[in-house]
Amino acid sequence: MNRASVRNWFATLIYFLLGVLEVILALRFIFRLLGANQNSGFIQFLYTLSGGFVGPFNGIFNDQTIGNTSVFEVSTLIAILVYALVGWGLVSLVRVILASNSSGR
Fold first, then answer.
1. What value, to the nearest 5°, has the Cα angle with vertex 32 and ends 29 and 33?
2. Is 74:63 a contact under the CB 8 Å cutoff?
3. Whose CB among 18, 47, 75, 94 lies 3.0–4.6 Å from 10's, allowing a Cys bridge?
4. Residue 44 DSSP one-character state
5. Segments forming the whole domain that contains residue 71
6. How many domains are there within the chain?
């Protein structure tokens, strides 16, 4: 396997994992915004799964309650943005570390 193949494999893996995480966070945001029933097994699973990823961003801004059950969760939006930037940074780092050697060695 040459460096370009390894580089592309790592970039693809990082983007795949980032995509899965972003979908989970987006679902959390949508379900919180729509006031999904928190007694539902799927919603409990989703909130538990995503809670660890959103946790570091809780308290930066106040989440806005809309009506009785809906929440505009700013912390989830911040998490989506930060993880996208981290993923992009990791792919860039992999590309620099595994860059082709231009001297021909």
1. 80
2. yes
3. 94
4. H
5. 3-97
6. 1
With the C-alpha atoms ordered 40, 24, 34, 57, is the resulting torsion angle positive or negative? positive
Q: What is the pLDDT of residue 102?
A: 57
Task: pLDDT band for 4, please (50, 70, 90 cuts).
Answer: confident
Is the pTM for the entire model greater than 0.85?
A: yes
pLDDT tier at 101, thresholds 50, 70, 90: low
Q: Does 103 map to a domain? A: no
Q: How far is CA 57 from the centre of its chain?
A: 12
CB count within 10 Å of CB 97 equals 11
Neighbours of 92 (CB within 10 A): 11
DSSP assigned state of 64: E
What is the pLDDT averaged over residues 31-57? 96
Q: Could you give the C-alpha distances from 99 to 8, 40, 92, 102, 105, in angstroms and in order?
A: 11, 48, 10, 9, 13
Any domain includes 104: no
